[in-house]
Each structure stands twice: as structure tokens, then as C-alpha cells.
Amino acid sequence: MGSARINLSRAVMFAMLAAGLALWSTPAGADDAAATYKAKCAMCHGADGKGDTPVGKKMGIRDLTSADVQKMSDEELITITTKGKNKMPGYENKLSAAQIKDVVAYIRQLAKGK
Fold this sequence. Notes:
Elements lengths: L1 H23 L5 H11 L1 H4 L8 H6 L7 H4 L3 H10 L13 H15 L3
């Protein structure tokens, strides 16, 4: 009877550990992408992505909601965000690949007015 309880306890602990790991490895949600965008991108690109900020105007930042930007592939936007382009710095040492991918998805939502 004692060993059955120990085995049951171990099984419950293992299940809880597995569930915790599954939740921990889940990709960032929309709220996380919005928070990352706000922390890393909005200063220049603006909360709405239009680049209508003092820094955006000074640097001639492109409107992320424009057709020109939106027609770019996700891979192109990921590369620009990762490596940088022109005056924009790269974020490969500041954001994970998953965060960059989520920010690109968030930029797509900005264009839809969401």
C-alpha cells in the first residue's frame, strides 16, 4: 500500500512537471507581442506603427501599416528586425527568434487596425 502511494505521488508530480514545462515552452501570446513591440519598437515606429513620432519623423521611418511594408514576406521582416537595415539597429542580441516572429505577426495586426 505504501509503495502504491509513492508511485501515485510520483505520477502526480511528473504530470505537474510535464504540464508546467508545456506551458513554459508555449509561444508568446498576442499580449506578449504587443508588450515587446511597445518596449522595443513603439519609440520610433509609434504605437500604431505609422512612424509618426519625433524619432520616426527625424529618421524617415517607414509606416509599418503601409502597403509597401505589408507586401513584404514575414521572412523579409524577420531578417530586417533581426539584422537591422539602414538606420534601424538589429535586435538579434536583444530579442529571441520567437519574439521577433511574434512582433512581425503583431505588425500584421497593426495594418488591420487591431
